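#struct-pred

JT: dropping the chains for the assembly here, can someone run the whole complex?
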Amino acid sequence: MKAYRLFDWQTPPRLVDIPIPEPGSGQVRLKVAGNGLCQSDLHMIHDWTESPPHINVTLPQTIGHEIGGWVDKAGPGVSGWDKGRAALVTLAGCGHCDACLRGWNNYCRGKPIQPGIGMDGGLAEYVLVPVGCLVPCDGLDPAEGAPLTDAGLSSYHAVRRVAPVLLPGSVAVVIGAGGLGHLAVAALKAVTPAEVIAVDPSPDARALALQSGADRAVEPGDDTLPRHDAAAVLDFVGAAVTLQSAFDMIRPQGHVVMVGRGSGELPFTHRSMPYGATLSTTFGGTKAELSELIALARSGAVRPHLSRHPLDEVEQVLNRLAKGEISGRAVIVP
Ligand SMILES: [Zn+2]
Ligand SMILES: [Zn+2]
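RK: done, full complex below.
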């Protein structure tokens, strides 16, 4: 089968032929329907010089971690995953830390596992998946579901975090309406009564936000933006300038969530935000949230804006992603 594999750090991966892998105990083999491309694939290819200590990446490794597919073969000891069933792949926690015990597999304090990060990923015709990473995707095209596992889930988890403060009449602001932000807009409209304002310098991103259900989409610095009147601000950029604008927009007891990893820094003092406001980061989302998101996608309430590309074009598409030329999410269909 064809697989897009990273052989050395900071050296472009290559599309090579390798044997179709056999599922081991507790694994299934998925026929990949689609694999969404992510900024973190670019980080892994261009920026990493060694494996981050918590995930143990050994090279060569097939990259790609936004995976949807159909069960092709179940390994020994696996039941309930019949051939042909559609599934999405997410991070499996260790199952026994305090976070996992409460269902927060995305905040696992042990050693989480996920294909594409520490084991072969989805930019291939087939991928081996530990059953703990599978979430059923019945009734939804798993290629369309692939971006839900990362872009969608990170957005939806942030929306779930702020949903308790979004009441009728509340305003929610989404900063950055790209691959993640447009899905946050759709999820906010689907599960909260808030008025949703998207902020993005790109006219294409603003158009995508409106198409995804935003009530308004404006440029950064627009003078109609809330001044300490937004109940929630989701920052999908994470630069100092976007974080400052979040601090300027949030209302007392509001919730700012910094999802973007722009490495922006601001001093956090008693005067940074109005009294009682909260600032948090997030990582991914839970399996339960992924299952809710699949239901929202099945109903049409949340639809990832995606383009499909063959595996042969993966390198060109990654280059376009690096240049910011991809609107929504690019999905590789092997
Ligand atoms: Zn990712
Ligand atoms: Zn755990």
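JT: nice. The domain at 2-150+284-333 is CATH 3.90.180.10 (Quinone Oxidoreductase; Chain A, domain 1). The first strand starts at residue 2 and ends at 6.
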